[in-house]
Amino acid sequence: MVVKKDVVKGKKEINPDIAGKRRSLKPKKRTSISSRVHQPRFPIVGIGASAGGLEALQQLFTNMPADTGMAFVIVTHLDPNHESIMPELLSKCTNMPVSTATDGVSVQPNSIYVIPQNKNMGILNRSLQLLEPTQPHGAGLPIDFFLRSLAQDQGSAAICIILSGTGSDGTLGLKAIKAEAGITIVQDPDSAKYDGMPRSAIETSLVDFVLDPVKMTKRLSAISRHFSRGGVKPGYENTEQYSSHLQKIFVLLRQHTKHDFSQYKQATLNRRIERRMSVNQIDNISEYVKFLQTHPEEGTALFKEILISVTSFFRDPLAFKALYKHLLRLILTKNATETLRVWVPGCATGEEAYSIAILIRECMAESGRELPVQIFATDLDIEAINTGRAGVYPAGIQADISPERLKRYFTKNENVYVVKNELREMVVFAVQDIARDPPFSKVDLICCRNLLIYFNSELQTKLLPVLHYSLNKHGILFLGPSETVGKYADIFTTLETKWKIYERFEAVLVNHIKLPLTITPTKPESAQTIEAIDAAKHPEINITELAQKVLLRDYAPACVIIDQKHNIIYVHGQTGRYLELPDGEMSLDIVEMAREGLKAELASAIRKATTQDKEVTFNNLLVKNNDGFRNVNLIVKPIFSKGEERELLMVIFQETTPAEPPEAQPAKGTRSRKLDKHVEELEQELKFTKEDLQTTIEELETTNEELKSANEELQSTNEELQSTNEELETSREELQSINEELMTVNTEHQVKIDELSKVSDDLLNLLNSTDIAMIFLDNNLYIRRYTPSMAKIFNVIKSDIGRPITHVTSKLVYPNFEKDLASVSDTLNSKQADVATKDGHWFNMRILPYRTADNAIGGLVVNFIDIDEQKKAAKDSQELAQLKATHVLAKSIVNTVREPLIILDAELKIISANNSFYRVFQITPKEIEGKSFFKLGKLQWNIPELRQLLESILRENTHFDDFKVENDFPGIGRKVLLLNARRVEPVPGHSLMILLAMEDVTPSKRSKKLPSRSVK
Questions:
Q1: How is the chain split into domains, by residue range?
Q2: What's the CATH fold of domain 897-1015?
Q3: CATH classification of 543-655 is 3.30.450.20, yes or no?
Q4: Residues linked to residue 159 through DSSP beta bridges, in sequence order
Q5: Sheet harboring 649-655: ordered strands across?
Q6: CA distance readout (Å), 309 to 143, 432, 665
Q7: 770-866: which CATH topology?
Q8: CA 116, CA 96: separation in Å to the nearest integer?
Q9: CATH of domain 42-234
Q10: Would the CA dihedral through 881, 882, 887, 893 be positive or negative?
Q11: Cα(263)–Cα(456) distance, rounded to whole angstroms?
Q12: Highest mean pLDDT: which of 260-274, 282-296, 407-421?
């Protein structure tokens, strides 16, 4: 069939966002488009999840890169009184920032937003808007609400993901995303903990990808890369080439589906083709043509894309309100026996057809008239038709239907609404291509909303006369707000300009219409299709032709042809001898018109012929007419066999003998013996008939009273059961909602428990690995827990848990232990002390208050840290400190001495010197430290004898005094020095050393004689 969708009113033609099926869920306002144009576009992913969804979300974001350029908004079913910890849990799975959504926050790429509890959430110009729930607890559908809002705000940049959960929340939101050319992804039911929500979404046949959470990550990454490259580049710049590719697509589609889409608007098809290209990450239409050729399944996907079955109940409520008054007028003009016929082409999944059915029911209730109703709902999409036939819709329809209508016309079954039989029996669904297949005829109302806008002007010109032909006189045509009858305004009268409601105008201008008067299906139909369009398949019956054919073949006497309601529709011959017009209101009922002597037998014969489907004959009936009585054979014969559209009967009156001449008039005061006998028989028969009739009437009245009483009782019982059922249903819905929320909370708690268990294990392993003895006491000093190292100090075993610590013997030599415990418990001031065991092992004991998460005191914690090594080390460190102090003292003494001193190592290299040496020889530590003593200056110390003396000191531990050295030294001139040397015992970090002292004996006067040296 075709596609329909709401568009902005006020324009005659507009390119829709979808070229598929029909309708957006609600009239869309495009006021935000201008503000979005200037913003950099990035995809926004709406994720719906319920019970079991946390696990799927963790899998999704654990594998999701942090730089996809997408924003993620998570909507779940939450307990309104429980603060969710989902943001905290998800933040451990991803490097993207995770936050609870706040009112008015602007959505940013590479970020995750989680709906807060007890809120509904929408989106406007990429800013999240929080609203108070209007539905009772358990009845709201927050996922549908957000996804619809996302579809309206972001259009093709919206992505929908449905994860694990029970019920059907998210199904209608997914339809809205699909209608706006967004991408739809659903978790594979086999991988979902609860498959209710995924299966409900998949049943719409609008899902692009069915994947497990890990594979979703790869698909989203691919979509992100495709989006970042600028998306599809279809090649409009070369119109001729693009048109050629488009024609090839039409050929492939027709070959695959047997349907021709070449007369659809090109803009409509462009959008749907671009979307399929985007889904398959194909950038050029020529590549897509090749892909379509090599992947037959893509032909089916594109066909479904064009026929996207998206609709809703009472779309444009004001339009249906305007239709109501015209429909009410139409019903009031109908006879009680006339059938009200309605045709809904492009019905999609049937919501609009059922909306019309509800409207008709309400009109009949207001007018007090009950008419037979036939609603023919047709569409090209067989899957959409099957959905309409089933009459099962997700719980999200409660957003479009008032609670009163839901209660009156639907039955709640778990998470879906089922159309009640009284509504379902009014609607017949059938597969039909309005562009090719024959139309329905003699229709009172055609509801063809937002269908014509998807066809080009040529096809619109062809279809409008078809719709005119299908309507009865004063029939109503109901179009969408963006559709019009155009140049055919001369054959339609406008009833509602705004809502495009028209009335068929009878005129000779019907010459516009060129239709075959005999209708032949273009292809074999299924059994359901045959049942649905059966009325349109038969041509109008030519009664005259039919009667003459039958009469010429079988009969010549007077006869009439009647329909199922006993109405005469054709008369042949002189029937006035047997029928006469009744008194009062005009009627064509043959039983009412039958003359005396024929009525009872005629009614009986018609009844038998109809029920038994065979010819019935009554012979030699005495029928009274104006000139006496006639002997007549009555024959009633079916013309059509049972099961055809119309069962017609032929009633034949056949006189058996000529009428007898009137009997000679008897003498005055006498009566004919034959007449008297006949009168007596008639009177006797009449008496019996009256008695039998009276008895039958009395029995019937009694039975009616009993049935009436039983019916009232059953009705009362039914109302009570209905009331009880509604209460139970409400309770069940609330319990189910609460159960889902509890499952979500339980999942969060379970994750938290697992994390706490891991933390507890980590802490226990940490305590054990540090070998810290630790014991936990309650407020009564009873043992709650201890670490294994505690056995070194207290003689504690597992069975001691729950016993007072004072009952357990210890190895401590510390009499104030119990006193310190009591002191800390009373003052809450920690206590620390070094304590020793009886075997001399030292511990640092710390007694601290045990504080709970809410800062309450829950007992004491006693730690014993092993400090035995530190104690021993402290003792050694005292000796080392004394040694260091001695070293410092010696160094101070050396620097105080006025004579130059120098220390040499075992290789006779200078380790250090005192301040006097540096001052006398005018040299710095850098210039001499680490250098050989004999290479100083200009080798003035390189004296072989001096070298021998120093080496002998190292070997033999000798010493020398007053070794005379006389030489010129740089910067200070000629000096005479006396050297004294001693060996120094090694210290840590050094081997043997030599201390060399120098005494300056340079004479100021030559008269003084220097002493000679001595060596020992």
A1: 42-234, 317-536, 543-655, 770-866, 897-1015
A2: Beta-Lactamase (3.30.450)
A3: yes
A4: 45, 183
A5: 568-572, 558-562, 649-655, 628-638, 616-625
A6: 20, 15, 85
A7: Beta-Lactamase (3.30.450)
A8: 18
A9: 3.40.50.180
A10: positive
A11: 6
A12: 407-421
Dihedral over Cα of 941, 945, 949, 955: its sign: positive
Q: Do the domains 42-234 and 317-536 sit in the same CATH topology, yes or no?
A: yes
Let me know: does 355 contact 314? Beta carbons within 8 Å.
yes
The burial class, CB within 10 Å (0-12 / 13-18 / 19+), for 839 is exposed
| Measured distance CA(473)–CA(484) in Å, rounded | 20
- Collect contacts of 543-551 with beta carbons under 8 A, ≥24 apart: 543/569, 543/570, 544/570, 546/639, 546/648, 547/572, 547/650, 550/639, 550/650
Report the 10 Å Cβ neighbour count for 959: 16
Please state, in angstroms and rounded to a whole number, the distance separating the CA atoms of residues 887 and 896: 14
Q: For residue 670, with 0-12 CB atoms within 10 Å meaning exposed, 13-18 middle and 19 or more buried, which class applies? A: exposed
H helix intervals, 229-262: 239-257
Q: For 54-68, what is the mean pLDDT? A: 89
Tokens 């004996």 sit at which residue? 1001
Distance CA 801, CA 778 (A): 11
Helix 266-279 / helix 296-306 crossing angle, nearest 10 deg: 130
∠ CA 405-407-411, rounded to 5°: 115
- Please give the pLDDT value at position 203: 86
Burial label for 840, CB within 10 Å (0-12, 13-18, 19+), is: exposed
- CATH 3.30.300.30 assigned to 317-536: no
* Residue 528, pLDDT score: 36
> 826-853, pLDDT tens digit by residue?
888 888 888 888 888 888 889 999 887 6
Kindly state the tokens that stand for 125: 């110009």
* Its pTM surpasses 0.90: no
Give the residues across from 76 on adjacent strands: 49
Contact predicate 1008/1016, CB 8 Å:
no
Highest-confidence segment of 277-281, 503-507, 705-709, 826-830: 826-830
DSSP 664: P
The single-letter DSSP state of residue 629 is: E
Amino acid code (one letter) for 728: L
